[in-house]
Amino acid sequence: MTTTAVERTTLADVIRANNQTCPDSPAIVGEGRTITYGELSSRSDAVASGLVAHGLAAGDRVAYLARNATEYWELFFAASKAGVVIVPLNFRLSGPEIAWILDDADPAALLVEDHLTELVPDDWTGLRLTFSQTGAPAVADGWQAYEEWLAAHPAVDPRRDTGGDTLCCLMYSSGTTGRPKGVTTTVSGFLWAVDAFSAMFDVSPASVSLVPTPYYHIAAGGWSLIALAAGGSIVQFTEVTPHNMLSLLVGHRATHVIMVPTVMQLFITSPEASAADYSSVEHVVYGGSPISETVMLGAQKVFGAQLSQSYGLTETIGVTTFLRPEDHVVGADSKLRSAGRAVPGLEVAIMDPDTGALCETGVVGEVVTRGPGVTTAYWRNPQATAEAFWPGGWFRTGDAGHLDADGYLFLKDRIKDLLMSGGENIYPAEVENAIMAHPAVQEVAVIGVPSQKWGETPLAVVVPRAGETIDPAELISFTRERLAHYKCPTAVEVVDQLPRNPSGKVLKRELRAPWWAGHERNIG
């Protein structure tokens, strides 16, 4: 269980407490710069002083555009100490996508890895800081070297942090209309999640957590904060490959490991990985898709650790339901195909997606949730906020499923068009908007189709304009010029027309059905 010397009422209290109790303990190890809690506290003090000196007011935004690096956590805790909002940006996005988010979030300062500075529009105004993970950064005109800027400010905590329902983090996810939505997270929401989840996963000062996904994902940022709040260490990745994941897991004696089932399968089938020493591993947490009996049994044999599945969204700080270790058994009444039960403190229900009426046990409807870890609004988007909630504060996940008599959630399909590929959320509308700019395209529908490697990948079903011919490879290249590559279709199917209902709505379920035949559920 987590212990602190000071009661936490703000996120800054996390690092202040550990600076008092374990200043010489490693906070971050692995790839990038290793740092102790004392060093992290001091450097975040200096960053916070610099932000205040630059004129950032309480509630202003500061954005981070880089791969995983120690600098992220310096900025994260500095933002809390200065009373400003951290905005982690997806470094895999294209220039136009980054430009749109910067315009929407309107940050007053940016911290960017040097090879990504060209993604920032020339006309963006604000404090531009750049750093490198391989040596001295290449500092372009208009930019300042982060280390030099930091050294110019005193390591004095301004203590301007806020608590309660104050916004502290703004994370962007793709939107149903093709534009990203800023998911707002409050201080109280984050602190609730830290306390709730650290208890569920037995995170302690002795824990070493391996989190191989980017910090712009709530799973990585959220879990890492839980580990840091406990006074444990996080094993940081700059680039994730099977080899370095194995090397860092074993080399740092990780106790808690976050994986997706496809990576777990790789570990249990690779001769090198399956023969490694995993005696340090206590808990393997996976998400994104259910686990097969074969992978579960193999993982239990190889890791000799507890297995847990989590299901959640950015809007719920990553975890909504939890399939506990004791549920990972094979048998007639097995719950393995479920996503588990609601996290203590959160409520999960099933509602009719058209009326908002509660569904009976076993009846499929839309999964809804409410509680202290659930967002209350999308940033500067009242329409999206209104559409996302039913009366009573129930957040609409967009996933279809049912609850059994024991309260276990079984996911069946998506009500929204969201698909997930390799842990990345993709809204087809965004991809469709890009494809529709092609002069040969009359109509397009993007769906998710099964992928053994990624869970699912985007498929574009395209109707060409009269007299035009669609070259699938050329269309994919066209899309890649406009969107992050992971959002782009991996295949194109050319058809004469799209299936529609009487009101003219495209029936994507009909398009998905042949691809998902034989799969127990149509979502990861």
TrEMBL record:
It comes from the Bacteria. Residues 430-505 form the AMP-binding enzyme C-terminal domain. Signal peptide: none annotated. Keywords: Ligase. Residues 17-379 form the AMP-dependent synthetase/ligase domain. Its EC number is 6.2.1.3. Pfam families: AMP-binding, AMP-binding_C. It is an enzyme of class 6 (ligase). GO terms for molecular function: long-chain fatty acid-CoA ligase activity. This is Long-chain-fatty-acid--CoA ligase. It comes from Aeromicrobium wangtongii. The lineage of its organism: Bacteria, Bacillati, Actinomycetota, Actinomycetes, Propionibacteriales.
